[in-house]
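I'll show a record.
***
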Amino acid sequence: MTESKAMILGAAGKCLTAEELDLYRGERPWGFILFARNIGEPEQIRDLVASMRDAVGRQDAPVFIDQEGGRVQRLRPPLAPNYPTGAALGRIFAANPEAGLRAAWLMSRLHAFDLLNLGITADCLPVLDVPVPGSHDVIGDRAYGHDADTVARMGRAAADGLLAGGVLPVMKHIPGHGRAFADSHKELPRVDASIEELRNQDFRPFRMLNDLPMAMTAHVVYSALDPEYPATTSKHVISEIIRGEIGFDGLLMSDDVSMHALSGDFGDRVDAILAAGCDVVLHCNGVMDEMLAVAKRTPELSGKALERAEAALLGLIAGDSADEASIRAEFAEHCALVG
């Protein structure tokens, strides 16, 4: 792999500015992420993705997107259908587990068709958070259900569907955002559940899917684990829980470094994230001053983090021979089960 910095960056609009090109060429982010502001016509998206990869001189540079279904879906009609929520798929599972698992696989396989057509190679899915009554709806209907086994089984099917289509899954938000009573985009949530409760519910889906190539952290404080720092910047949570108890040894990326759950300036945030044990820093909003500050403090990928990044990219294999029209027709039949 050509030398890259341990960061994933966004862009401000539908094409790269001269300043963005200079930043990417000089600082060489490992990957990129797209949001709705970057999405226009198919050729525009392909050109944007190509220009990002050209800027860093790596045609395998991963390009990420949040394409879950429901309210978290960056590609909309006519680029992609409006897909159902994780909760809607969970209702299929509740009525017929085999049909629910198949629906989750089919939807992810369709995501892979949609994304690869545009040059996008990684989807921030599956959502493995398990909500509890009264928790903030920042997760809400994005979750497959309210019990760990349902979430784990549906998450596995969703991840397998992406991988079958040659798209990398990113499970989120490890070690679990479902108990949060606040939106980490706006403030720092604090979870006061016991370690036994966390083990029995929140950690379980991640433990069952700990072989996946990539995971995104939760900007959440777990008082039973580390009363001071959120998981993203907690050495204890990352080393003892995520790497240890959960057993995840894939590439660990932070959730967005610009979210208000984190404190300090951007340089301090980057230092804390990497010192805690995250492999890669994620910055999403495309604000140039923030990206410059992140890039200034982000080192090159090296050591174990580089090994994990290289291993993740090995999942970018050619998709299976599935027929898109047949997959769409079968998925429509499954969706009819919940109206």
User: Anything to note?
Assistant: Residues 25-338 form a domain with the TIM Barrel fold (CATH 3.20.20.300). The chain has a mean pLDDT of 94. The chain has one domain: 25-338. The radius of gyration is 19 Å.
